[in-house]
């Protein structure tokens, strides 16, 4: 079995979705869904830990990374829209059953897929991917203000979230030793954020994040009804998603495996080996074949 990575693009109803693929084609599939402001490259250290056991697929969400970023006049940047593209992407690749790894924006994307197609999702790994109000920190206050009043002033108040230094802070905040965080990830994220039009796309998505919070009860009902095998592996020093959000999964899935790590939001930057080992152990028990 090879754990070499192939880099491909799929045409999804006229929209190009770039993705990384590794592992045996006939192995159980793990779909890796990235978050803001990143892309599939955030899984560069994790993929080798999984590819010896699983078929690993890591797409760039529309508007992120190497996937198409259509004009806002041609594509409405909402999480419903992103989830629909990724849903069609999985069908295009013939992924009838798959486990999902969800992080940050990948969570509302993946949880939409799971709630829509519970028979397809074999297991969930959530790494700082939230589905509970108590998981949201006070860092969301300016976003909540924009949700309640989408005025130009409130939209402008979110622009500092897109600044290069904020990206670096997201990667390094809560990490015991910042020198352990490679500059590769945040530098590439900042490259993509600097593209013409990217800022307005991201502000649109920040405004639409309220739709995810509104769906929390729907996601929780899915958890209770279908009790998918779930591993919550969480950077406990995350400034956006609190450990309480990880612990809350046990309320709806009593057997959920919750592990808190001494790191920040981008936990894979410092704990890819530990997270990879936990996933392999978890999926071996979860019967994802």
Topology:
Layout lengths: L4 E8 L2 E8 L6 E5 L13 H4 L4 E5 L19 H14 L5 E5 L3 H11 L4 E6 L14 H8 L3 H5 L7 H9 L10 H11 L4 H11 L1 H5 L1 H11 L3 E6 L7 H5 L1 H4 L4 E5 L6 H19 L3
Parallel strand pairs: 3-4, 3-5, 5-6, 6-7, 7-8
Antiparallel strand pairs: 1-2, 2-4
Helix pairs in contact: 2-3, 6-7
Low-confidence stretches: none
Helix content: 40-55%
Main sheet attributes: strand count, strand direction, barrel closure = 8 strands, mixed
Strand content: 15-25%
Mean model confidence by pLDDT: 97
Instruction: Using the CA coordinates, give the radius of gyration.
Output: 18 Å
What does this structure look like?
By secondary structure, the chain is α/β, with parallel strands linked by helices. It has one domain: Rossmann fold (3-Layer(aba) Sandwich), CATH 3.40.50.1820. It contains 13 helices and eight strands. The chain has helices at residues 47-50, 79-92, 106-116, 141-148, 152-156, 164-172, 183-193, 198-208, 210-214, 216-226, 243-247, 249-252, 268-286, and strands at 5-12, 15-22, 29-33, 55-59, 98-102, 121-126, 230-235, 257-261. Strands 1-2-4-3-5-6-7-8 form an eight-stranded mixed sheet, sandwiched between helices. Strand 3 (29-33), helix 1 and strand 4 (55-59) form a beta-alpha-beta unit. Helix 2 (79-92) packs across helix 3 (106-116). The longest helix has 19 residues, at 268-286. The radius of gyration is 18 Å and the shape is globular.
